[in-house]
From TrEMBL:
Compositionally biased region (Basic and acidic residues): 333-352, 362-371
Top-level taxon of origin: Eukaryota
The keyword Repeat belongs to this UniProt entry's keyword annotation: yes
Main location: nucleus
Protein name listed in UniProt: WD repeat and HMG-box DNA-binding protein 1
Compartments reported by the entry: Nucleus
A GO molecular function held by the record: DNA binding
GO cellular component: nuclear replication fork
Compositional bias annotation for Polar residues: 296-323, 391-404
Residue span(s) of domain WDHD1/CFT4 helical bundle: 175-278
GO biological process: DNA repair; DNA-templated DNA replication; mitotic cell cycle
Organism field: Trifolium pratense
Length: 413
């Protein structure tokens, strides 16, 4: 898919999923005339025990087309690169001819940690590197002076424990100190991976159990180291170790441990460290809550009722456009009433003209009965409305009048 020119002679290459690691010489290439001098220099170097070979590694991400890592590849002076590849977790590893295995981590901006040395093992054996697990080295044991296994019989794989090549242990237990350093390195890598997955929007819940198990194992190792320091009268070192505990339960266990060892002053110090940690955690949670509340958007649910009404009014006023209202003149109520009356009478006359009046005998009889009916003292207004032919279903618009006072008429006459 891709063709890349490298800036040095290729030594080896290895791949893992979508990653490709390449090791090259960091020095410039020599001309053909200088090859004899180079061979003489290599013979001198092998006699003096120092190495002049400088190697460089590059890590390519084929999927994204990037180069996330690049740097010098450290090897033991006077040795050569014997094996280069990835661990089962995808970490870069290198193994040189002196029997030193190095593991690349992202700590300190990217560093190589020596996690195995053949000098700490049997001196009459060589180890043919095959692979690397979490805490185990997979190799084939070869008797000196052989450096590689025989094909027949079939070689047997051997698991070797990883350990930092420490000169001495100031804690009195080299195995516990090695376990502490290995757990710290693996825990840092898991936390870094979880952070990268969270930033990428991926689900990192599968790594939560691994991180918690490593934290618990690390706390157990630290508690054993604290007990070793207390027994060897290294109380200052024990105080430094208790600050590295991750869980509150482990802190309380350390207080019980020093109390059982009859060290009340140290128990008081541990109790003060625990109280300070709890206070800092509460303070940190309050600060985070304040930050979240300050940056949270203001919604209508968080506002009181009065402020809701004010904001709604303000939004209505701001949303209404500024339009020029037309001018209307006031009309007289009497003129409007007269116009309404004329309109209604015109509508009634039109409806009466549309009806057939010629052939209906019942309507003539009703008209005769109305003419022959005796005059009603209060029916003058009703007869007027019947003459105009108003509909009975419609309500009467004329208000009834009360009878006049007979005494008032006689007095006037």
């Amino acid at each position: 898919r891709h063709v890349i020119s490298l800036d040095g002679l290729v030594v080896t290459a290895s791949g893992f999923k979508d990653k490709l690691a390449v090791v090259t010489h960091a020095t410039d290439c020599l001309s053909s005339n200088d090859q004899v001098g180079l061979a003489f220099m290599e013979s001198v170097v092998s006699d003096t025990g120092t190495s002049s070979v400088v190697l460089e590694f590059k890590l390519f991400n084929i999927t994204h087309g990037t180069q996330p890592l690049r740097g010098r590849l450290p090897i033991t002076p006077g040795s050569s690169l014997s094996w280069f590849g990835f661990s089962e977790e995808g970490q870069l590893c290198s193994y040189d001819s002196k029997g030193v295995l190095r593991l690349y981590t992202s700590q300190f901006g990217g560093s190589w940690f020596p996690v195995f040395s053949a000098f700490k093992e049997k001196t009459d054996e060589n180890y043919w590197m095959v692979g690397l697990q979490t805490n185990k080295l997979v190799c084939v044991v070869c008797k000196k002076p052989e450096f590689f296994p025989q094909v027949v019989p079939k070689p047997i794989l051997t698991l070797m424990n990883l350990a930092f090549p420490l000169a001495t242990s100031d804690l009195g237990s080299e195995a516990l100190e090695n376990e502490f350093m290995m757990n710290s390195m693996h825990l840092f890598e898991i936390q870094k991976k979880m952070e990268e997955m969270d930033n990428a929007g991926l689900d990192a819940s599968l790594l939560d159990d691994d991180a918690f198990n490593l934290e618990a194992a690390q706390d157990r190792c630290i508690l054993r180291l604290i007990a070793s320091c207390c027994n060897s009268d290294k109380l200052v070192r024990a105080t430094e170790l208790v600050k590295l505990l991750s869980l509150e339960k482990s802190m309380k266990g350390a207080i019980k441990l020093v109390t059982a060892l009859k060290l009340p002053n140290l128990a008081e110090k541990f109790n003060g460290i625990l109280e300070e940690r709890l206070y800092n955690e509460v303070k940190k949670t309050k600060e985070t809550n304040l930050k979240e509340n300050s940056f949270a958007p203001v919604t209508s649910d968080t506002l009181p009722s009065g402020s809701k009404a004010e904001t709604s009014k303000a939004s209505i006023i701001s949303s209404s456009p500024n339009l020029s209202a037309p001018l209307f003149t006031k009309k007289n109520k009497t003129q409007e009433a007269a116009k309404d009356g004329t309109n209604k009478t015109a509508e009634v006359d039109g409806s009466m003209k549309a009806k057939q009046t010629g052939g209906d005998e019942t309507s003539d009889k009703k008209g005769k009965e109305e003419v022959q009916a005796p005059p009603h003292p209060h029916g003058s207004s009703i007869k007027l409305t019947n003459k105009h032919g108003t509909n009975k279903s419609e309500p009467s618009l004329v208000t009834p009048t009360r009878p006049s006072n007979p005494f008032l008429k006689s007095a006037i006459k």
